[in-house]
Amino acid sequence: MKELRNSVCIVGVDESDELGTLPHKSMLTLHLEAVRNAVRDAGLKISDVDGIFTAGQHSPATIGEALGITPRYVDGTTVGGCSFIIMVGHALVALHHGLCDVAVVCHGESGRSGVGVTPRRDTALPGQYEAPFGFGGASTLFGMITTRHMHEHGTTLEQWAQVAVSTRQWAALNPKAKNREPITIADVLNSRPVCYPFNLLNICLVTDAGGAVVLTRADRAKDCAKKPVYVRGAGEATEHVMLTQMKSLTFSEATRMSGAKAFTMAGVTHKDFNHLMFYDAFTSGPPIMLESLGFCKPGEGVHFFDDGKSTPGGSLPINTNGGGLSYTHSGMYGIFPIIEAARQLRGECGPRQVPNCKVSLVNGMGGMLSAAGTLVLSSEK
Amino acid sequence: MELERPLPQPITPEAKPYWEGLREQKLMLPRCRACRRAFFYPRVICPHCHAADIEWFQSSGRGRLYSFEIGYQSFNKAFKVKPPFVLAMVELDEGPRMMSNLIGIEPDPKKIRCDMPVEVVFEKQTDEITLPFFRPAGGTR
Lengths: 381, 141
Ligand SMILES: [Zn+2]
Prior knowledge:
Structural class of chain A: alpha/beta
Oligomer: heterodimer
Largest sheet of chain B: 5 strands, antiparallel
Number of strands of chain B: 7
Distance between the termini of chain A: 16 Å
Number of helices of chain A: 12
Number of strands of chain A: 11
Bound molecules: zinc ion
CATH architecture of chain A: 3-Layer(aba) Sandwich
């Protein structure tokens, strides 16, 4: 596993031309824009791409066809929003073994406007065991995790709200973020109740967006346009899909396993990170991920958001793009924290740049902490 | 009568004893003959020991409220129950957890607590479908 460490680099990252509410753009357009922009960021051409990794409604074959290329390696692992994080690990292995030379991990989703979207998914299990009771949408499931966490650990609504406040402070510094006005804990607590324990500002945005990440082997990365970002470690795991099957609602076994694998491959410990990117579909997500990854004891994750530690100028910045809570969240958010981590490690984030950012963590969930993907990214070998 | 809830379509063959039981006001659960452990949702392989030797038994219908939410809006076009309503995850005394609604209590987070004892109540929806809801169980257990 250690031979994979630093063998591959992220050489290009970008979003679609626009993010937000885009009823004039189809899912495919958002997807192709992101690929074109990320390949250009790498200083490469679309014809250089020979590996396609994508999740969700688009098969990698659709993207290869639409780009007009014939990839020799494809992966369509779809285990929820973290699929793209997991696919960086899959691309790492494929590139390392020469199964492809230029890999694109890519995403496009018309999550808000639903343009060019044909939903299809097996609904037999939720249809029988969840929907009749009013479940539908992620907040009616992640809320269960959150309520139980409050019961077991005494976590408060104010502490969850602090995550939204911190993340919004970063969004204020990101011109691409959808919601940039500062908010307070009271604003979160007084926002519209949606599904207890969540008010509106505890829940991510729903946007139209695309994103893509280009990877190649480290020897070839030197010839690309930008400073390479090394993939030091990658991990993945899945635990459940139906929430009733999760062993403990307050601790993600998939996240623990995924993180342990990535940290071992990377040869890092929790203290080595300058910057953390978490999949924040809900305010309670990042604290529970911190706990499951072993950054702290169960119940203590919210303290990473105390006293400005996670905010601009703080000692351990978290979700510096403004997160799914305030920047963008198309539905499968996982590509976007990778893009932000690469930009921070390159040092190109302007007013939101984390000083001396050398080692960055990307950790995401699929479903309700059902699947997990973890990356350790680094500016140096 | 207009339906208030989205009802299962399809009922999967491996879950038939569950839905047939509900029609007779019984909460039936699958149990593994090899390791004797109950599980839910129904499937053909035991999730505990992976044996494929399954029997059915009637649950006590008693358990505890493992977690809950209060829905302040509908999250599904076909769900027409007037909010607020309580979404519940129940852990049955026999072990398995299932989703349901908690009824017979004010939908107020101050009045509901995790681990409170609950018991099943059956509500017929159509000739084919009866759903299991849960209500607070009185007394100490
Ligand atoms: Zn068994």
